[in-house]
Amino acid sequence: MSSCSIDELEAPCIEIKTWVKKKRAVLPASSTPTHSLYLSNLDDMIGTRFLTPTIYFYSRKDPLPHGGLGAGKVMRRALSQVLVPYYPLAGRLRDVGGGKLEVACTAAGAFFVEATTDLALEDLGSLAMPNPSWKPFVYCFPGEEHLTILDLPLLIAQVTYFKCGGFALGLRICHCICDGMGAMQFMNAWAEMVRGATFISINPCWEREKLKPRSPPLTQFKHMEFENIEDNSNLIALISKPQLVQKGFCFNHKFQASLKEQVFVESGMRCTTFEVMAAHVWRSWVRALQITPRDQEMRLTFATNGRSVLKSPIKEGFYGNFIGVACAMSTINELTTKPLSEIVHLVQMARKSISEEYIRSTIDYLEVKKPTKLEFSGKLGITHWTRFSLYETDFGWGIPIYAGPIDLSPFPQLCLFLPHHKESGSIIVCICLPLSSISSFKFFLMKKD
């Protein structure tokens, strides 16, 4: 990679066949409570009602850990142990009326699959970015419908063995139970048990009742992140084309720093790497797609960690959803003609708007409005994965070669920021684009002004 550059990455299209050898429910190792648990409006809002798929690739480690026992057997035993403190993940979701969900702690168990493939890890090619070809490494039930969550296990794990001695761990964890931070807390606990710990270092805490709506609900903000705005643009037609391609663009540290310097020269404003990257990608996306009409309002949304804005810190071990959805808005004309610093300012103000009061207002808004579908009008969403500790999840085989998402194509208005080489500070921007817009998107990314 050159001194200040963007590298275009390709996810190789590979035919992958796997053979399921074992599949079974994994029950908690000892008795657990059988009551029902309240889910907050942040837990069961429409945007969390799915099982989040992620994948971890591990190479063979010599000498073999765990006395040479297979990864599946060791991880399944440890999962049974960790499901005792994390017993809600062994339950099932149920609708209690009015679209409200709760967790029925039935101890029905998680679901664990062991499979094999005739491929070696090296046959997969680059493991730098998500690849839809990896779907066979993540288990789905026959006939399972998209975004189905009721009556499904809340955690589904598949260990797939490669002929080289490495393996893949494909996971699906119900987003209603935990956000990204909560999922990482669970994964760290599971990894501790696999490595031989007799107890986990952080005890999980439920306490979703503290996030109940106020009585009466008090919506203090507009919450444009959830509203349906009038959309007269050609955006949906553009991203509905069959030639939609998942692409990755790697920004090295120097390029990121040059964007921040540009903002400072333009305005004297300091900004974070996320703020400038989000603004730059948003503007480049709108320019490359040539969205019209120019007076159409566009939205950029991104989740922020609500734990950081609490006046009184939440109890250690809380693993539920505690996010605020920030929303920046601008017309296409403003996005494509104004300097980068002004777009960064919009992103910065959206991020700073997320306060404890805003999150409380979000909970009340969801109580009153009860959105039943995701709104995509004029929207690009960015998910920031660069600070999650999943890249360091060590079950005894060392840190994963790759850890993260698999496929963006079901969500063509979603962009992911992923770490590339942690020590170098490089970031991969993963996004779905029409085939005809790829070259122009890269051009605008490089253009900067």
Rg measurement, Å: 22 Å
- Tell me the name of the CATH homologous superfamily of the largest domain: Chloramphenicol acetyltransferase-like domain
Structural class of the helices, strands and pairings?
alpha+beta
Question: What is the CA–CA distance across the termini?
Answer: 22 Å
Describe how the helices and strands are arranged.
Layout: E1 6-9, E2 19-26, E3 36-38, E4 51-58, H1 71-82, E5 92-95, E6 101-104, E7 110-116, E8 155-161, E9 167-174, H2 180-194, H3 235-239, E10 244-251, H4 253-267, H5 273-289, E11 297-305, E12 323-331, H6 332-337, H7 340-352, H8 356-369, E13 379-384, E14 402-404, E15 414-419, E16 427-434, H9 438-447
Parallel strand pairs: 7-8, 11-13, 13-15
Antiparallel strand pairs: 1-10, 2-7, 3-6, 4-9, 4-14, 5-6, 8-9, 10-16, 11-12, 15-16
Provide key terms for this protein.
alpha+beta, Chloramphenicol Acetyltransferase, 2 domains, 7-stranded mixed β-sheet, 6-stranded mixed β-sheet
Word description of this protein:
- There is one protein chain.
- By secondary structure, this protein is α+β, with helices and mostly antiparallel strands.
- The chain has 2 domains: 7-211, Chloramphenicol Acetyltransferase, CATH 3.30.559.10; 235-447, Chloramphenicol acetyltransferase-like domain (Chloramphenicol Acetyltransferase, 2-Layer Sandwich), CATH 3.30.559.10.
- The protein is 24% helix and 23% strand.
- It has helices spanning 71-82, 180-194, 235-239, 253-267, 273-289, 332-337, 340-352, 356-369, 438-447; strands at residues 6-9, 19-26, 36-38, 51-58, 92-95, 101-104, 110-116, 155-161, 167-174, 244-251, 297-305, 323-331, 379-384, 402-404, 414-419, 427-434.
- The strands form 3 sheets. It has a 7-stranded mixed sheet with strand order 1-10-16-15-13-11-12. A 6-stranded mixed sheet has the order 2-7-8-9-4-14, with helices on one face. Strands 3-6-5 form a 3-stranded antiparallel sheet, with no helix packed on it.
- Strand 15 and strand 16 form a beta hairpin.
- The longest helix is centred in the middle third of the chain and has 17 residues, at 273-289.
- The model has no long low-confidence stretch (mean pLDDT 92).
